[in-house]
Specification:
The structure is a homodimer. Chain A contains nine helices and no strands. Chain A is mainly alpha-helical. The structure holds a DNA duplex.
DNA sequence: TCCGTTGGGTTACGCGCAGTAGGTTACGTA
DNA sequence: TACGTAACCTACTGCGCGTAACCCAACGGA
């Protein structure tokens, strides 16, 4: 360590000296930055760290991405584009709506399964803050969602519990996003937004599956 | 300005000197911090600013809230609790599920309408970053959502356009939240998550209202 | 062969904010 | 009136940010 005087150029990607063509450096930096953003979250991410790991001085970053936020956005765009493509491709060539939904959903959750932390960076919306904070905010969200579940259960006492929970999460997420959407489209009157939302929430509520009767109750427990 | 030497104690809330009982100070700080968090976003928020405006030195903050994140969470909790109560109260005493959903939704969007920026702080999930960044991230989200809309339109060409857009936002939001939920409950197999999600997305898709036939087409435009 | 130019890179500085250690002053109470 | 404690402050250390100013290898004419 202690790279002091350019003594050992530690060739990056097969280029002599520390010097590397613009495009290559850019990719290398993006790769690294993405990792660091994922590990530390937007807040704790430090440009200095990035530079240390990349073996490059700070002005380079500003030269390439303009600002910290520029760098962040560049990372987001890259990952997001990648995800979006696999997602859309999965749904595009479906024969009917039913299949489009299913294939899209499957692709979406496969992405999450494959690389959860990477997904959190862009879609999760949480990794913008440090790990602990993100968790505590999730808890807050969950509190509300639990209360939604409770109310739902009152009206559908025999529904499958997991389905109710899932439904509550979906409703909550849908509400939030529709809220954000509305803020960007304030001309739409409230009643109409509420209508849209209700269509959404009501129908899925009506479809909640019943819990399976508990066949194991009172039976001999398997040894 | 230039409050230099405690010369003018500028009584806070009717207390002589700068000295104020713990609980009162806490409320005062929360109030102020909330405003600043809303104005600057989590990232740009500076404890120094808060102190300047509150006429108090930095250690006070740490004494009360432990850390920057502690302060942030305290703000979130306060607002969130308030919102959650009005929301839940609205839905709680509904006669049936239909009414519960409608009343809940109405309460929810009324909250947004009344105080959009405050809502963004907690539920928006965007104000954690500065204004510009948040907007650009919203754009990214919107790109994806537009593509969802496009696919939906292909399968339901005569559906009302706004409803399709709303549906896309809802589906996207629901997906994100279900993703987060899944990350915290990794034991659930993917197929089941996909099922839950599909129930949700499919039913609301089937309910998409048709666009009104365009009665003005070819008619004399109203002067 | 020399020389300007350009592209990739660096050092160094000033600033502001975060936390913390240790001190100070007002207030309640015996 | 003397003491403990609650409220508050000054001052220090340290770090990361963003920028200005400079450096130097390579390349392509003339």
């Amino acid at each position: 360590m202690a790279v002091s005087k350019r003594s050992a150029p530690e060739r990056v990607g097969g280029f002599k000296h520390g010097r590397v063509p613009r495009a290559v450096r850019e990719q290398q930096l993006l790769e690294l930055a993405e990792r660091l953003f994922i590990e530390s979250g937007y807040g704790a991410f430090s440009i200095e760290d990035l530079c240390r790991e990349a073996g490059v001085s700070r002005p380079i970053i500003y030269d390439h991405f303009g600002s910290r936020d520029g760098l962040y956005l560049a990372c987001l765009r890259r990952v997001r584009a990648e995800f979006e493509n696999t997602l859309i491709n999965a749904a595009r060539d479906a024969p009917d709506a039913e299949a489009a939904i299913r294939q899209g959903a499957d692709a979406f959750f496969t992405i999450i399964e494959r690389d959860p932390r990477r997904w959190s960076l862009v879609y999760g919306g949480l990794s913008e803050l440090g790990g602990t904070l993100a968790d505590q905010i999730y808890e807050l969200r969950t509190d509300t969602i639990d209360r939604i579940s409770a109310i739902t259960t009152r009206f559908a006492p025999h529904a499958d519990r997991e389905a109710v929970t899932a439904h509550a999460h979906a409703v909550s997420g849908a509400g939030e996003q529709m809220g954000r959407w509305w803020l960007h489209n304030p001309d739409i009157p409230r009643e109409r937004i509420v209508d849209h939302f209700c269509t959404f929430a009501r129908m899925s509520f009506l479809q909640l599956p019943m819990a399976e009767p508990d066949l194991t109750a009172g039976s001999v427990p398997a040894s």
